[in-house]
Write a structure and sequence with these properties.
With about 140 residues, this protein is an alpha+beta fold. It has helices at about 5-25, 30-45, 105-115; strands at about 55, 60-65, 70-75, 80-85, 85-90, 100-105.
């Protein structure tokens, strides 16, 4: 599919969604929820929610205003990496220096606790004997 065809197809999808939302009287929070459900459905169909590793050179920030319930989407020049260990956002500070934000998953936090000796206090070898009497 060429870019012009894709743009036309997306335009038709958006037009149909907006027309249907107007027919149903969707506004405010209900409209935002429907738009989010549409976007989530498209994304789940494209790659599935079970993707293990994701990486992108830019990201889309989606915000739902707490007062109005309005959904706003912003496109950002922000690197994005996601694995089972968490999410890494990469960009630049106001002074142009590289900057990163890291959000660790529960899995990663558990691994850090184990490395620091604060993890689960139990044998890892399923009761097998080791030299020196440790199990």
């Amino acid at each position: 599919m060429k870019n012009s065809q894709a743009a036309e197809w997306v335009g038709a999808l958006v037009s149909a969604f907006l027309h249907r939302a107007a027919e149903e009287g969707l506004a405010g929070d209900a409209f935002s929820q429907a738009a989010r459900a549409l976007f989530d459905g498209i994304c789940d169909g494209a790659g599935g929610p079970d993707s293990v590793a994701l990486e992108a050179d830019n990201a889309v920030l989606e915000v739902i205003d707490r007062r109005s319930g309005r959904l706003v989407r912003r496109y950002l020049e922000l690197g994005y990496q996601e694995t089972a260990n968490g999410i890494l956002l990469s960009g630049e500070s106001l002074s142009g220096q590289p900057a990163q934000l890291v959000y660790l998953s529960e899995t990663a936090i558990g691994k850090i606790h184990e490395l620091r000796g604060a993890g689960e206090d139990g044998p890892r070898c399923d009761g097998h004997d080791h030299p020196g009497g440790r199990t």
